[in-house]
Specification:
Order of helices and strands: EEHHHHEEHHEHHEEH
Strand order of the largest sheet: 2-1-6-7
Radius of gyration: 24 Å
Strand content: 15-25%
Oligomer: single chain
Largest sheet: 4 strands, antiparallel
Number of strands: 7
Helix content: 55-70%
Structural class: alpha+beta
Distance between the termini: 38 Å
Number of helices: 9
Length: about 270
């Protein structure tokens, strides 16, 4: 006879549950893992976003006379951010196809029509073949603080046009750019905000797939442990009691989950 439990990192059993709860969550976890993949992509993007913000905020800690070093740093930081941004979007499109979320797919297609997202795609496609063409830096200096208070890396539009592309959207978008140089920071701020908004749309859509019983189970049997440092739940276990050893169980099956994703979906502020 089998028993079922909520389990922590050390595969210790935290709470006994019933078979129906285990089986229902096991079925739900098929879709949850697909959403978890999107959430992981988003977290990677947010980490890259924070690195850029920290670099810009602490630019006075760097020697602003060493422009080539700053260019190199910006090429790395922004290319990382751009790649993670497009990976996030492309994974959502794949998720929509896998889960037949047609309305959400329409939302994503409209999302890709945003000016900042067109720029994100253009720079991603360019960056796959060349490093980003930073051509200048626009700096702000405060005499009263005696330090650099802001910096904007500028990208050469003429250099972007040198990359012969077969992508119709990129061609049309390039033609619409009238400036000789563009501030990537302005676009970065806009596409970061838009990416945040897109995740909320995906989250809202995913919750439509979630049965109320699953939500109640997660809140009462899993997230109840979330603030207990030594008891962080990471999965559900199916186990069988070892013969002649009362209270000793052998694990038969383990259903893993990311507790941060469940907190994101069902946390107290949601």
């Amino acid at each position: 006879m089998y028993s079922y439990f909520v389990s922590n990192y050390d595969r210790n059993f935290l709470l006994k549950i019933n078979e129906n709860e285990f089986q229902d969550f096991k079925e739900y976890n098929i879709s949850l893992k697909k959403y978890t993949n999107i959430f992981d992509c988003y977290r990677n993007y947010k980490k890259s976003e924070e690195l850029i913000k920290e670099y810009i905020e602490n630019i006075d800690d760097n020697d602003t006379q060493k422009l080539n070093d700053i260019y190199r740093d910006f090429k790395y930081l922004f290319m990382q951010n751009i790649m993670f941004g497009r990976i996030f979007i492309d994974n959502i499109k794949s998720y929509c196809n896998q889960e037949n979320r047609f309305d959400l797919k329409k939302e994503v297609l409209n999302f890709e029509k945003l000016d900042e997202i067109k720029m994100l795609k253009l720079l991603r496609d360019y960056g796959q073949h060349f490093s980003l063409p930073f051509s200048n830096l626009r700096t702000s200096y405060s005499p009263s603080q005696e330090k650099t208070t802001g910096i904007e890396p500028l990208i050469s539009v003429s250099e972007l046009r040198k990359n012969v592309t077969s992508n119709t959207q990129n061609k049309m978008y390039l033609k619409s750019l009238n400036e000789g140089e563009i501030s990537i920071v302005d676009y970065f701020k806009n596409w970061s905000k838009s990416i945040d908004e897109l995740l909320l749309k995906v989250k809202t859509d995913f919750l439509l797939l979630t049965d109320l019983n699953i939500k109640q189970f997660v809140l009462s049997k899993i997230l109840c442990f979330i603030d207990m440092e030594d008891y962080i739940p990471v999965g559900l276990a199916k186990a069988e009691e070892v013969k002649n050893h009362i209270g000793i169980y052998q694990q038969i099956e383990f259903i893993s989950f990311d507790e941060l994703v469940l907190l994101h979906l069902f946390g107290i502020n949601n």
